[in-house]
Amino acid sequence: MTLNRRAFIGTGAAATAALSAPDVFAAGHGKPRVVVVGGGAGGATAARYIAKDSKGEIDVMLIEPTRMYYTCFFSNLYLGGFKEMGDLGHSYGGLAAGGVNVVHDWAVGVDRDARTVALAGGGSVPYDKLILSPGIDFVDGAVEGWDVAAQNAMPHAYKGGSQTELLKAQIMAMPEGGTFAMVAPPNPYRCPPGPYERVSMVAHYLKANNPTAKIIVADPKGKFSKQALFQEGWGDHYSGMIDWIGEEFGGGNVSVDPAAMTLTIDGEETKVDVCNVIPAMKAGRIAEMAGVTDGNWAPVNAIDMSSKADPDIYVLGDSAEQGDMPKSGFSANSQAKVCANAVRGALTGSSVFPARYSNTCWSLIDTDDGVKVGATYEATDEKIAQVDGFISETGESAELRKATYEESEGWYAGITADMFG
Ligand SMILES: Cc1cc2nc3c(=O)[nH]c(=O)nc-3n(C[C@H](O)[C@H](O)[C@H](O)COP(=O)(O)OP(=O)(O)OC[C@H]3O[C@@H](n4cnc5c(N)ncnc54)[C@H](O)[C@@H]3O)c2cc1C
């Protein structure tokens, strides 16, 4: 008799040599199967925790195309010259050593009836529970004149790695007294303070290397995260260098011409040397393909991050629409732990702790001038709801700001170890 895949899974037959990824998974001795799509902040944490805590009772497969994950967190510090690109890269060896079956491929489809995930490399993998943490994609046509074909001329640098390196190379190549422009995104988006920390870090670099250069920020928002802290810092450290044009002054009425390297704000065209376009965002495309988004983001239940569209699918991190938490690596890690605990409980009957979430976002404004904002959260029937919060204050001492920056370095080391082992 020839075994087709279904019969193979059903019999639990022993694995043979040269197995494909799906067959490796299918040979899992009838254990519950969790597939995680996306090996970033949310997905790596969830995969690692389920494998670690289930002690072999659950088969965990992580599908992630890249072999090194370059964090967006601290990527602005790379632009500022405080970190090297190598400091931001994390491999998947620790996850594999911890029992996660790491498959380097793209997930290209989800069949919710059959409970399978299709891979770009061919075949499909079955799941009992599917966790999606694919990060963000950009909304088509969000900035007039820009699409991904223009991302080399006008980088977004809002996904880690090569885009960030490109943006830095462009900043370093700016002519003396040149213009760096940023098109900031509308809410909600990945890392609310991210664009403004980036402005600070670009200004830090330019002040040392190209002090007559200018920075223009076109912003569709009327206000932004940690605004008072950033604007105080910009005045203290980079006086006269940064022109922030908010909603009130037409900052949302923007178009770009990547071939001519021009930016038009409210009808006024400016020739620029570097243009960092950060378009409006939505959930990573695979969440849309799985049919668990509302068109933009994937609504989830606050108690366990399960999708409101499908109880066997969970959505973590930036893709999720969960309530009050900002889209951050810290949030994704926090959500992943709640989800991992719930998934393990659902599949093995282990006890499930009540959902509690936390987040802190640090930003560096200049050397040793760190600020932070953070909160804790609880699950309500409606959403993940903020319980309490804190934020750095304007006028803080240099010692406190230095301590805040040092705290962020400790956080980075700790959280990347928690994600990648
Ligand atoms: C400039 C900047 C600064 C930031 N600073 C901070 C900070 O200081 N602190 C903080 O907490 N957060 C920060 N963030 C935010 C943080 O990077 C994100 O919120 C976090 O990475 C979200 O985690 P995620 O798991 O949702 O997505 P990601 O970490 O982006 O991971 C998504 C993964 O999914 C993979 N993927 C996508 N589609 C597929 C598919 N179809 N199949 C398989 N794999 C797929 C991708 O390759 C990627 O590895 C910053 C972001 C930026 C841009």
Describe what you observe in this structure.
The protein contains eleven helices and 24 strands. It is an alpha/beta fold and 421 residues long. It has a domain at 152-277: 3-Layer(bba) Sandwich (FAD/NAD(P)-binding domain). The strands form eight sheets. Strands 5-2-1-9-20 form a five-stranded parallel beta sheet, covered by helices on one side. The protein has a four-stranded parallel beta sheet with strand order 13-12-11-17, covered by helices on one side. The radius of gyration is 22 Å and the shape is globular. A hairpin with a 4-residue loop joins strand 23 and strand 24. The structure holds flavin-adenine dinucleotide (FAD). The site of flavin-adenine dinucleotide has 39 residues, from helix 3, helix 4, helix 7, helix 10 and strand 22. Flavin-adenine dinucleotide (FAD) binds at residues 37-43, 63-66, 69, 72-73, 75-76, 106-107, 133-135, 158, 190-191, 194, 198, 284, 286, 316-319, 327-330, 332, 361-362.
